[in-house]
Design goal:
Blueprint (H helix, E strand, L loop, with lengths): L5 E2 L2 E4 L3 H12 L4 E4 L16 E2 L8 H11 L6 H8 L2 H10 L6 E2 L2 E2 L1 E2 L9 E2 L5 H15 L3 E4 L2 E8 L11 E8 L5 E5 L4
Parallel strand pairs: 1-12, 2-3, 3-9
Antiparallel strand pairs: 4-8, 5-6, 7-8, 10-11, 11-12
Helix pairs in contact: 1-5, 2-3
Length: 195
């Protein structure tokens, strides 16, 4: 059975670190966001991530060195442009998380950086040995309390709704999705210009 269409300005599928950060950023910029997750907000793999987040933060390090280390460790599988794009934003990501309240491990007032496999420098910011859990434990209350984020737990993605399927003019694009509410067995249609 299908209920009325639920309309939002953005839909994010998945409540791990990537999905949660995306939902917060979109909501902070004024969008009404549906955050859809197949289990509860607290489930998923992100809380099990231990190590930390690598970024060229030390005066002894550079983004170019970090890129080189990543390309070597990637054994030819890394896209150079994507690698550079991601790594040059590492420091910004750590600062964003710190402003959100993540308490990275510090030593003498500065971030404590570790050196992990594949890295030629100490560049991994961490929260003891439970970085993923610390980040998720900090962000989950913010996701639950944000007035522009509507959380749909126990909702399994069934299919994407495309402009082509609806015979809408213009280029092919995603305009929403169908999700099965596990607890009721109902399928809900969600629409948004950004999915």
């Amino acid at each position: 059975m299908m209920e009325a269409v639920k309309s939002f300005e953005a839909i994010v599928v998945g409540s791990g670190l990537a999905g949660g950060v995306t939902a917060l950023e979109l909501a902070d910029h004024g969008l009404r966001v549906a955050l859809i997750t197949k289990r509860s907000l607290e489930d998923g793999a992100s809380p099990r991530a231990q190590g930390g987040i690598a970024a060229a933060l030390s005066s002894l390090d550079s983004i170019d060195t970090h890129v080189q280390d990543t390309l070597i460790a990637g054994a030819g599988l890394c896209d150079l442009e994507a690698t550079h794009f991601i790594l040059e934003r590492g420091e910004m990501a750590i600062h964003w998380l710190t402003r959100r309240g993540v308490r990275f491990t510090r030593e003498n007032g500065a971030l404590h950086l570790t050196r992990e496999g594949g890295h030629s420098q100490r560049r991994v910011a961490h929260v003891a040995d439970a970085t993923g859990a610390a980040i998720q434990n900090t962000l989950h209350p913010q996701l639950r309390q944000h007035p522009r984020i509507h959380l749909f737990e126990q909702h399994m993605l069934v299919d994407l709704i495309t402009s082509e399927r609806l015979a809408l003019p213009g280029p092919r694009r995603c305009v929403g999705l169908y999700a099965l509410e596990e607890t009721s067995g109902e399928v809900h249609a969600f629409t948004a210009p950004h999915t």
